[in-house]
Amino acid sequence: MIYRISEFADKCGVNKETIRYYERKNLLQEPHRTEAGYRIYSYDDVKRVGFIKRIQELGFSLSEIYKLLGVVDKDEVRCQDMFEFISKKQKEAQKQIEDLKRIEMIYIFPKKFAFSQNMAINNC
């Protein structure tokens, strides 16, 4: 199946400017064009944008995604480089989890203390 940019953007859940931006940043390859000059995209392109969006949700920046896609596109798997890259992201995520747990404890502690002391939380 092939899509023009409007259909493609709708299918991917993004706007046309996002598609053009991804092309400028080389996250998407330059699309084929019709004789009239319209961009056309394939289902593989839909999957690629889906991957980009999902990995962004996981906290990867577009420059990091570009590096990941470079490895995928070129099939140049340098195991050590990939391991270090992913390991760094995992450590960053773990730190975020720890920070969120600390915030949660700050939120929960006054409630537990008030309950154990038979105090209203509003008096805290």
From TrEMBL:
Q: Which Gene3D superfamilies match?
A: 1.10.1660.10
SMART domains from the entry? Answer: HTH_MERR
One GO biological process from the UniProt record? response to mercury ion
Residue stretches making up the HTH merR-type domain = 1-71
UniProt GO molecular function: DNA binding; DNA-binding transcription factor activity; mercury ion binding
* Keyword annotations of the record: Activator, DNA-binding, Mercuric resistance, Mercury, Metal-binding, Plasmid, Repressor, Transcription, Transcription regulation
Q: Name one Pfam family in it.
A: MerR_1
The cross-references to PANTHER family, in alphabetical order and at most eight, read:
MERR-FAMILY TRANSCRIPTIONAL REGULATOR, REDOX-CYCLING DRUG-SENSING TRANSCRIPTIONAL ACTIVATOR SOXR
NCBIfam families cross-referenced by the UniProt entry: MerR
Function text: Mediates the mercuric-dependent induction of mercury resistance operon. In the absence of mercury MerR represses transcription by binding tightly to the mer operator region; when mercury is present the dimeric complex binds a single ion and becomes a potent transcriptional activator, while remaining bound to the mer site.
Q: Any idea what this protein is called?
A: Mercuric resistance operon regulatory protein
Provide the species name: Pseudolactococcus piscium MKFS47
